[in-house]
Hints:
By secondary structure, this protein is mainly alpha-helical. The chain is built from six helices and no strands.
Amino acid sequence: AIVTQTMAGPHRWFGVGFGTHLAHAFGFTKIPDDSVRSPHSIHVTWLARGGVIGLGLWALLNAHWALSLLRARQRLARRGELKAANLALYCGAVWTAMLVNATFDIYLEGPAGGIWYWSVIGLGIFLIVWSRSTPPPVPSLTTEAVPNDPLEPPLHRTLLGMRIDGTSYASGAK
């Protein structure tokens, strides 16, 4: 009912606003104590309160954030920053769970979900910016002979010139 009334009504583009009691605005005031205020879906709430433009901005914000976080995760993984890449993956999973919950509940409309949701968004923005600004590791330019060690991968010897424990191959110590 809210979707059809919003799409066909006078508040199609900009909605009824964020101060309006949605149950009164759309005729759902059958309960005398006014305990029902929300349609119990964040997407329908955005459509009712912000109209088509508000719902579009909500969808654009979430889609852009999710795609940027996926690209950031790929950049971090390519650079070998696996903890940060896994944190980006975890951040995306928590975001997905929160949006699924908010599709069927008023989770994001209160502080119990809203604070955590925007904190996850903020953490994701931090990871996105960090993945763009942190330079990749510089490969070693030394061409000295490195002894063959079957326990360590050749990538570490040729690119970094260091063992996994941080000691140099040039020192000869193991």
